[in-house]
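Internal ticket - ligand job 360, adenosine-5'-triphosphate:
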Amino acid sequence: MNSNRVYTIASIPGDGIGVEVTPAAERVLEATQKRFGFRLDVEAVDYASCDYYTKHGRMMPEDWKKRLEGKDALLFGAVGWPDTVPDHISLWGSLVQFRREFDQYVSLRPVRLMPGVRSPLADRVHGDIDFVVVRENTEGEYSQVGGRMFAGTDRETVLQETVLTRTGTDRILRYAFELANGRPRKHLTSATKSNGIAISMPYWDERVEAMAQHYPEVSWNKFHIDNLAAQFVLNPSQFDVVVGSNLFGDILSDLGPACTGTIGIAPSGNIDPERRFPSLFEPVHGSAPDIAGKGIANPIGAIWAASMMLDHLGESDAAAAIMRAVETSLSDERSRTRDLGGKADCAGCADAVIDALNAA
Ligand code: ATP
Ligand code: MG
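stdout (structure tokens):
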């Protein structure tokens, strides 16, 4: 928390329903500022969008980094409009740039069962589902190291290396253990596959064990990724903080939110815990061209992302208040959007959250 509690934010709506859900989230943020006595200094950003690409031939201005690196956080909508710009250009020209240049090495995805949202696991769940997936976001299996040999012959051989550095491994594990240490259950689960991947994964396990020594209060266990994926479905209540390498974390961070219902409510953070650079918060969903422009998108994913952003900025009371208001509004059928079987539109759903905030 900074002393005068003024935070500079870049609001980057992007494309499609990003343009609808981001303003909804901003309105919720505005309502919390008054209540909790901090101020957000929000700059609206029109780049990192396919519209910008159409006009300028690039996703972002050349000096984008200089413009954004001093911000306290970035609130992102969605990017992509495949009819006009291929996804690899829009994605690599925006989100991937942020992740790399701002060294957002943590990808954080909360997974929580919410009222009014039908989970495909509804009949299986005994107890709460409330955990977080922590994914390593910069190295691991998604490396550029490898190559093809004997191309086009019977001996064709393809190599793709996994890169685990001690710095990269330890910093994600430290973040995950810190997070677990600050949560009531203080439990961490590590995703591994050291019975099959004989070099990199035993190293990962070793570093988990070493890091665990610094956190005697945190209980921890490890699962092989195949079993872990099964456990997400069979017994999701057992988890608190789940940490995985880039690939394993990627898989789990889609599987987790899928277990709890709709893509419309899931949020995500791309975080630099050391705060050298701004972290980015966004809904998990994409630009959803099929429903864009109709005002019917579910804004809860963006609102939840805004709550994560406040938490990151140190405004945890306001962040928690937003989540309580989200739960209150989701409990009422009238404020649910169509993807949740309701009739509310995007703005109406955000209004309900704001009403719940003001009533609390
Ligand atoms: P990405 O390009 O990010 O991988 P995508 O384009 O494949 O994602 P989305 O844009 O997330 O997928 O949309 C997938 C489906 O979910 C679409 O049918 C879309 O309408 C629906 N959907 C996504 N987000 C929302 C939302 N906030 N509210 C309602 N429906 C949504
Ligand atoms: Mg898409």
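Auto-summary: The chain has a mean pLDDT of 95. The pocket of magnesium ion (ligand 2) is lined by residues 80, 286-287 (CB under 6 Å).
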